[in-house]
Structure formats: C-alpha cells, structure tokens
Amino acid sequence: MIAIPQSILDGLAAHALRELPNEACGLLAGSGSAVSAHYPMVNVDRSPEHFSLDPSEHFRVLREARSHGWQIVASYHSHPQSPARPSEEDVRLAYDPDITYIILSLQERENPDVKAFSIRDGKVEPVEIVSDKP
Predict the structure, then answer these.
(1) Which of 46, 50, 52, 103 has the fewest Cβ atoms surrounding its Cβ within 10 A?
(2) HSE, side-chain direction, 13 A CA sphere, residue 10
(3) CA nearest to 74, candidates 47, 46, 103
(4) What is the average pLDDT across 82-91?
(5) How many Å apart are CA 29 and CA 36, to the nearest integer?
C-alpha cells in the first residue's frame, strides 16, 4: 500500500498532460509508505516511449528530500498511449526494489489511470494506492 494525497495525484496528472506527447517522469518523497512531496522532473529523452532522469536534477531532489527528513518512496512516469502497467523496459530498468513504481496512463486524457507496482528481480506486483479523496 502507498498513501498519496489527492493533491499529489492531481499534480501527477497535470504534469503528465503538460508533457504530452512525451512521457513525464519524477519522484515522490515521504516516510515509509506515505507520500509527502511530488518532484516533477525533466525527461531528458524527450520521448513518448521512454524516459531518463537528469542525474544532476536527481541528486538535487535527493538532497532536498533528505533536508526534510524524507526518502524517495516512489518513481513515476506516464504512458501517453498505453495502459498503466510496466512495459518490459520499465521492468528491466527498475533499479530500486525498495520503492514503488507508479505509472499514469493517458489513454483517456480526461480520466488518467494511475497504478502502482512493486518490481523486484523482474517480478511485478500491484500495490494499492490510498488517497484522501472522499
């Protein structure tokens, strides 16, 4: 389970829509499984099919999160034209087994689909997203 405030979920969707036609990407920070902050980042690949984080921006986000006593809880990216499930490339590039991977599908622009996953040793498991939305 990962707890993400609705305001942050809304921020993920807004970021993904702004980046169209390319994938959006970023990090979520907090404590344990509770997300406290959203860090939209630049997709240096500028591609609708894959993303890469800028290393210097990544380190800046890590430092800022740590300054608040947080850790990186999740990595997220959008799928502009495909479902909210990890691609083979997403699974292959899942570098940290201790974070949650969030994928936001924009197949339905007005109703983005957000799903979360644990990826360990190539094995994908769904993770429940809990928000404060009534």
Answers:
(1) 46
(2) 5
(3) 103
(4) 94
(5) 6
What are the tokens at 49? 């099919």
With tokens 């939209």, the residue in question is 40
Residue spans per domain, the chain: 2-130
* Global confidence as pTM: 0.94
CATH 3.40.50.300 fits 2-130, yes or no: no
Residue 134, preceding peptide bond in cis (omega within 30° of 0) = no
Question: What's the pLDDT score for residue 89?
Answer: 92
DSSP result, 75-102 = EEEEESSS-SS--HHHHHT---TTSEEE
Residues 35-77 pLDDT 10s: 999 999 999 999 999 999 999 999 999 999 999 999 999 999 9
Helix (H, G, I), strand (E, B) or coil at 21: coil
Determine the Cα–Cα distance for residues 57 and 82; give it in Å rounded to an integer.
Answer: 27
Element (H, E) at 16: helix 6-19
